[in-house]
């Protein structure tokens, strides 16, 4: 009798929570856009009216903590998996996997080797497994076969394909007979020019303006296709950029014999694989070599980077201070702008803006983790995500309370709901929403307490098993 009552309580609580979070089916569309290397504060360098238009009518997060290392491939894979690099396996743009005995480098076709990508399952695959369709225009990894799949529609990577052509494809897929619900769009700037000019160069102004024009073009095309008000547009990036200088170069040749190690990845995080028997010699020679280079044995890499438990992370990594460059000698390639540094540095942080029926309007949040995007995407697409390192709760307040929801406080017959216009009165709605969530949470807590008491009283011998099961995920979190 008691347990039946408890189950009813639990179901009610679960329903309350689930219902307050749901989004109407015709609003379950997402277009995720990455402007590579768009540092968070580029928004304020020159007028960026289109970015500001999105912010005013949508949401803006000022500081997004991306993942270490702050490079392109690791961060783009985090955006679509919600995992840290050590968990998704794309730990750098240049990698060596000692188990596979294979290398990965952007300079050749290695990136098409599926095995490097299959430690995780990107969102387009999960979306398709849920019965939906996805379309990708040059997003890193979307033209690679992963777990035997590609996105439903995709363009093979070709940097010469213009932004306008990429947008045309995205619009075509969203408006086709069997429309996609998830679109992924990638553009190489302002990263490319940021590397060549350095972010502090005044010539970056026109580059940022051009990116703003590109966004304007996208908005215009979405409006023309009548998609602007129905899809959820998220604009972000993989990392920022910092100014480098030939005055701030650390030359490994000054400290290490090239025959004693293999340099897997170079700057600003040198990934060092010592030759057989040379580990101590290499480590000692480098450990205190330069005040602007911090050298870690793999097992000593700081916890906060979540950059340890993967065989593709090399036995020694040497991390340069902001704006410092690691080279073997000065003949190696040098760029005036670079990224890859500590993800706690503001210079490494990307932008984050969003607009659409699911999002609040003119709302600014101070900070988020880039791992939180994945659960947000899963929520918007109404799909069940894979295990990840983010939390929807952390970004829940970006979501509009005005989007029609099947909340118990705004009950209307289901056949009417589709036509209900978003409400103007945000205050009232968000109060009801808050109340719904709070009530749901209280019911769940009361249920858990009662349930635990019930369990303790009725099944004392079963308790140890029960405890070990629930405590494991908590310890891992
Ligand atoms: C979300 O998806 C589930 C199926 O996985 C479906 O039962 C439910 O109705 C969907 N919710 C909305 C609001 O579309
Ligand atoms: C690893 O691959 C290289 C060729 O890329 C080969 O020469 C070497 O023998 C392989 N090592 C092992 C342990 O298989
Ligand atoms: C890349 O795109 C350009 C411009 O559309 C085209 O001319 C070129 O043939 C494409 N290259 C490949 C390899 O498809
Ligand atoms: C480089 O090292 C010097 C000496 O320790 C230090 O004063 C300086 O702040 C470092 N530079 C950076 C960018 O951290
Ligand atoms: C850098 O090292 C390469 C290979 O050892 C050598 O050929 C080159 O002369 C060196 N350059 C400088 C500037 O020392
Ligand atoms: C947006 O919000 C800011 C303060 O958060 C306010 O000053 C501004 O008037 C608002 N703009 C619009 C268009 O609502
Ligand atoms: C980011 O994640 C860390 C570790 O999980 C957490 O302590 C922090 O509060 C998160 N930041 C935000 C803004 O949610
Ligand atoms: C990140 O998520 C993965 C997959 O759930 C998990 O195995 C890993 O322990 C998590 N990492 C942290 C630091 O929580
Ligand atoms: Zn990048």
Automatic annotation (TrEMBL):
Signal peptide positions (record): 1-22
Residues that span the membrane, as ranges: 431-451
GO CC terms: membrane
InterPro entries: Alkaline_phosphatase_core_sf, Phosphodiest/P_Trfase
Alphabetized CDD domains for the sequence: Enpp
Membrane topology: Single-pass membrane protein
GO molecular function, one term: zinc ion binding
Cofactor: Zn(2+)
Family, similarity comment: Belongs to the nucleotide pyrophosphatase/phosphodiesterase family.
Annotated protein name in UniProt: Ectonucleotide pyrophosphatase/phosphodiesterase family member 5
Gene name of the encoded protein: ENPP5
């Amino acid at each position: 009798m008691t347990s039946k009552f408890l189950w009813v309580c639990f179901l009610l609580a679960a329903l309350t929570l689930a219902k307050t979070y749901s989004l109407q089916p015709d609003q379950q569309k997402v277009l995720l856009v990455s402007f590579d290397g768009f540092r968070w504060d580029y928004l304020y360098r020159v007028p960026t009216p289109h970015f500001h238009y999105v912010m005013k009518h949508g949401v803006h997060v000022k500081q997004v903590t991306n993942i270490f290392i702050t490079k392109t491939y690791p961060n783009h894979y985090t955006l679509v998996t919600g995992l840290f690099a050590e968990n998704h396996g794309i730990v750098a743009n240049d990698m060596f996997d000692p188990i596979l005995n294979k290398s990965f480098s952007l300079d050749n076709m290695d990136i098409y080797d599926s095995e490097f990508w299959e430690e995780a399952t990107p969102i387009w695959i999960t979306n398709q497994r849920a019965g939906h369709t996805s379309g990708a225009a040059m997003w890193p990894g979307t033209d690679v076969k992963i777990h035997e799949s590609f996105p439903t529609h995709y363009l093979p990577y070709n940097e010469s394909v213009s932004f306008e052509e990429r947008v045309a494809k995205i619009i075509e897929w969203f408006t086709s007979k069997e429309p996609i619900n998830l679109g992924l769009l990638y553009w190489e700037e302002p990263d490319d020019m940021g590397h060549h000019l350095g972010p502090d160069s005044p010539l970056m102004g026109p580059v940022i303006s051009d990116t703003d024009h590109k966004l304007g073009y996208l908005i215009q095309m979405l409006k023309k296709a009548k998609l602007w008000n129905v899809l959820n547009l998220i604009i972000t990036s993989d990392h920022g950029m910092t100014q480098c200088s030939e005055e701030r170069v650390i030359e490994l040749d000054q400290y290490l014999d090239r025959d004693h190690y293999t340099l897997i990845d170079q700057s600003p995080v040198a990934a060092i694989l010592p030759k057989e028997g040379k580990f101590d010699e290499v480590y000692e020679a480098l450990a205190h070599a330069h005040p602007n280079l911090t050298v870690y044995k793999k097992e000593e890499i700081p916890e906060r980077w979540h950059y340890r438990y993967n065989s593709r992370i090399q036995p020694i990594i040497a991390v340069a201070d902001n704006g410092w460059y690691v080279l073997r000698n000065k003949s190696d390639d040098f760029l005036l702008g670079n990224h890859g540094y500590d993800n706690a540095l503001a210079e490494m942080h990307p932008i984050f803006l969003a607009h659409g029926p699911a999002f609040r309007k003119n709302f600014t949040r101070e900070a988020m983790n880039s791992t939180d995007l994945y659960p947000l995407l899963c929520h918007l697409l109404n799909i069940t995500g894979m295990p990840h390192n983010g939390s929807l709760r952390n970004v829940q307040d970006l979501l509009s309370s005005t989007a029609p929801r099947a909340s118990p406080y705004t009950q209307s017959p289901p056949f009417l709901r589709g036509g209900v216009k978003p409400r103007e009165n945000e205050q009232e709605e968000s109060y009801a929403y808050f109340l719904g969530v709070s009530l749901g949470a209280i019911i769940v807590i009361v249920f858990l307490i009662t349930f635990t008491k019930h369990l303790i009283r009725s099944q004392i011998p079963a308790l140890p098993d029960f405890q070990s099961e629930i405590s494991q995920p908590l310890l891992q979190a």
